[in-house]
């Protein structure tokens, strides 16, 4: 049996697949991804942290792009799928633990997934655009721990970005770099074995 009180799952790249709309948007605008991010500047972080909304983002983007972007392109091209194997793992974990989502997201993506019911599997959702904090800021994880009333050592964080995993580890959260559902199952089984050993010592 898994002993952790809390599991924190990333959304994009873990439960949600085919979520990266930047390549399609860049192609639509006729620019490279590198030039897209030059036009983005600091505004994407502000969008993630909820300091600006998507409409304001495109106004600012247009100034650097040199042309007015008339559509909200993040919403236009966002068409993700759900990894059913990961979803099944979450369902199993919920038999003994609380499972929440800790996601870096933007308003248009968040409300799309919310309306699709894709967050319904979680006991709670901590979205960067709503809480005003984003990974890899350690305060992002601290916010979740405080809200859930658990200590770092009582939580497990699963994310597909190494930088996010390392920052969670630095504040004492057991963290797993997600690559695929089968590997995640093995890592979770290893957690169970470690707990059994600690209990015997």
TrEMBL record:
<dbReference type="InterPro" id="IPR006439">
    <property type="entry name" value="HAD-SF_hydro_IA"/>
</dbReference>
<protein>
    <submittedName>
        <fullName>Haloacid dehalogenase</fullName>
    </submittedName>
</protein>
<dbReference type="InterPro" id="IPR023214">
    <property type="entry name" value="HAD_sf"/>
</dbReference>
<dbReference type="InterPro" id="IPR036412">
    <property type="entry name" value="HAD-like_sf"/>
</dbReference>
<dbReference type="InterPro" id="IPR023198">
    <property type="entry name" value="PGP-like_dom2"/>
</dbReference>
<dbReference type="Pfam" id="PF00702">
    <property type="entry name" value="Hydrolase"/>
</dbReference>
């Amino acid at each position: 049996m898994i002993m952790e009180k809390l599991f924190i799952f990333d959304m994009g790249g873990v439960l949600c697949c085919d979520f990266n709309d930047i390549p399609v948007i860049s192609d639509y605008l006729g620019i490279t991804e590198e030039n897209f991010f030059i036009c983005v500047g600091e505004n994407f972080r502000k969008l993630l942290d909820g300091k600006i909304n998507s409409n304001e983002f495109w106004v600012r983007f247009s100034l650097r792009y040199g042309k007015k972007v008339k559509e909200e392109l993040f919403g236009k091209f966002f068409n993700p799928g759900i990894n059913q194997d990961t979803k099944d793992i979450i369902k199993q974990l919920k038999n003994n633990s609380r499972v929440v989502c800790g996601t870096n997201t933007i308003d248009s993506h968040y409300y799309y997934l919310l309306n699709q019911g894709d967050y319904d599997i979680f006991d709670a959702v901590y979205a960067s655009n709503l809480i005003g904090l984003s990974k890899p800021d350690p305060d992002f994880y601290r916010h979740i721990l405080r809200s859930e009333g658990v200590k770092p050592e009582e939580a497990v964080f699963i994310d597909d970005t190494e930088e996010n995993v390392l920052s969670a580890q630095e504040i004492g959260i057991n963290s797993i770099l997600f690559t695929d559902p089968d590997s995640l199952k093995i890592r979770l089984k290893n957690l169970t074995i470690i707990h059994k050993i600690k209990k015997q010592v």
